[in-house]
Amino acid sequence: MSHEPPAAHDLTHIAPRDKAEILAEALPYIRKFHGKTIVIKYGGNAMTDPALQQDFAEDVVLLKLVGMNPVVVHGGGPQIEDALAKIGKKGTFIQGMRVTDEETMEVVEWVLAGQVQQDIVGLINVAGGKAVGLTGRDGGLIRARKLRMVDHKDPSVVHDVGQVGEIESIDPSVVKALQDDQFIPVISPLGFGANNENYNINADVVAGKLAEVLKAEKLMMLTNIPGVLDKAGNLLTNLSAREIDELFADGTISGGMLPKIASALEAAKNGVTAVHIIDGRVPHSMLLEILSEQAYGTMIRSH
Ligand SMILES: Nc1ncnc2c1ncn2[C@@H]1O[C@H](COP(=O)(O)OP(=O)(O)O)[C@@H](O)[C@H]1O
Ligand SMILES: CC(=O)N[C@@H](CCC(=O)OP(=O)(O)O)C(=O)O
């Protein structure tokens, strides 16, 4: 007999009565969030396992079918790295942002708006939803300009990170029209500038800003780590603005977590009711976070 614990997504070991209780527990949450917008940042690191990708797509469809409005913003950092490796290039990052020269920009566009987006759209459609892939250019969704990146530690230093954009404005009308028509928008983090130039924008930044503009009820950021960790590696389940400042200052937060936390905090301060950073490698973590009492990952508070 195997002593392996059942996989988290294997529900056959749960007694029927317990299953019924789990389903019944979801009802108040379904009622509470009916008609509400949930922005889901699907990080490139969370989407590397095909079985998990399928679980993710099914969860998104379930949220839509019970009356919520999920909007997916996807990343693709590791997938861009794989494509760069094929042309003998390796990405470099400053404060969590990819330094994007012209050649890198071509790869970024090709990977994000191509393979990554179409995989997610396909999986959602197969799971019974109607997903539509968009970039920030479609419907004039994301206007951007070249990012002026000030050094976190020395504000007199400004880094040139190439064609990385910062968001100037978001026109959410295309997203709203799709939502109203029962579609599920799947958005690549690319923006356009005043001269029709293209920008590579960090997906966390896009998700945070879009959640604000759409007045989303929730922003869920799915990543490859249980949440924000302290210096000893313990999960921080709840973070206030002041605590986040301290984590920035003492260097606990680095790399890709920098734009993630900054965007999460901005969204929380600007009206998004609940902002969570959760582990996308745990099957159905997003569904459980939304539809049960169980709390996962790190919740970001505005005060
Ligand atoms: N204090 C911290 N807590 C958790 N993760 C951190 C922390 N500081 C840096 N990180 C890094 O941030 C990563 C998540 O950001 P990123 O790689 O951009 O993921 P994603 O693809 O989901 O956007 C983690 O895998 C981890 O390596
Ligand atoms: C400017 C910048 O860093 N853009 C990101 C866009 C993709 C992304 O954000 O992907 P993850 O969410 O998987 O990290 C990049 O080029 O990697």
TrEMBL record:
Catalytic activity: N-acetyl-L-glutamate + ATP = N-acetyl-L-glutamyl 5-phosphate + ADP
Site entry (Transition state stabilizer), positions: K41, K260
Subcellular compartments: Cytoplasm
Coiled-coil residue windows: none
SUPFAM superfamilies, alphabetized: Carbamate kinase-like (SSF53633)
An annotated Gene Ontology molecular function: acetylglutamate kinase activity
GO CC annotations, alphabetized: cytoplasm
The keyword Cytoplasm appears for this protein: yes
EC class name: transferase
EC annotation from Swiss-Prot or TrEMBL: 2.7.2.8
UniProt record similarity statement: Belongs to the acetylglutamate kinase family. ArgB subfamily.
Function (record text): Catalyzes the ATP-dependent phosphorylation of N-acetyl-L-glutamate.
UniProt name for this protein: Acetylglutamate kinase
Source organism: Piscinibacter gummiphilus
